[in-house]
């Protein structure tokens, strides 16, 4: 299953990056997402590892992941190393005129076997909802942080 959500925001790539430069902060964008460093590892960047859980039913589902791309103000991506097979990518691109930032969140996941495919189909709307909420909250926080104090 593949899910893609895109948003445009007036916030700069730097403002957005400040909110997600530590991948564990992604867990703060939705009550239904948990992202925790593995082994107390506080360092973040390429090759850092996290435990990612999505809560969309009776029990959280997830896996341990490794960050495979970490380009400040541009790209954050991880892939699962155990558990549910999934890939996550968040791209930040400044608009040509510099007036906005385009965010694209891509999430792909697969569960093994025929029953796994059925489970994926059943979970699709819930996972999509969680990701929409997370990217919406990211945009709202970045724009709120960018507003001058009045």
Summarize the structure.
With 150 residues, the chain is an alpha+beta fold. 28% of the residues lie in helices and 37% in strands.
Give an overview in words.
The chain is of the alpha+beta class. It has one domain: START domain (Alpha-D-Glucose-1,6-Bisphosphate, Chain A, domain 4, 2-Layer Sandwich). It has 2 helices and 7 strands. The chain has a 7-stranded antiparallel β-sheet, with helices on one face. A hairpin with a 3-residue loop joins strand 4 and strand 5 (75-80). The chain is globular. 22% of the residues are buried. The mean pLDDT is 88.
* CATH architecture label: 2-Layer Sandwich
Q: How many structurally independent domains?
A: 1
CATH topology: Alpha-D-Glucose-1,6-Bisphosphate, Chain A, domain 4
| CATH class term | Alpha Beta
Q: What is the strand arrangement across the widest sheet?
A: 1-7-6-5-4-3-2
Per DSSP, what share of the residues sits in E-state strands of 2 or more residues? 35-45%
Radius of gyration: 16 Å
Class computed from helices, strands and strand pairing: alpha+beta
**How far apart lie the N and C ends?**
44 Å
CATH superfamily: START domain
H/I helix tally: 2
Helix content: 25-40%
User: What shape does the CA trace take?
Assistant: globular
Q: How are helices and strands ordered from N to C? A: EHEEEEEEH
Q: The biggest beta sheet, please?
A: 7 strands, antiparallel
- What is the overall pLDDT average? 88
């Amino acid at each position: 299953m593949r899910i893609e959500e895109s948003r445009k925001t007036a916030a700069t790539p730097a403002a957005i990056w400040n909110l997600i430069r530590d991948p564990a902060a992604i867990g703060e964008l939705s009550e239904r997402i948990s992202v925790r460093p593995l082994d107390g590892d506080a360092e973040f960047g390429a090759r850092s590892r996290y435990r990612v859980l999505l809560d969309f039913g009776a029990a959280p589902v997830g896996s341990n992941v490794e960050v495979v791309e970490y380009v400040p103000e541009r790209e954050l991506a991880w892939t699962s190393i155990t558990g549910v097979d999934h890939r996550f990518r968040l791209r930040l691109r400044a608009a040509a005129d510099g007036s906005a930032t385009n965010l694209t969140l891509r999430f792909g996941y697969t569960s093994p076997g025929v029953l796994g495919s059925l489970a994926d189909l059943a979970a699709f709307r819930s996972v999509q909802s969680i990701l929409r909420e997370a990217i919406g909250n990211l945009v709202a926080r970045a724009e709120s942080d960018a507003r001058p104090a009045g």
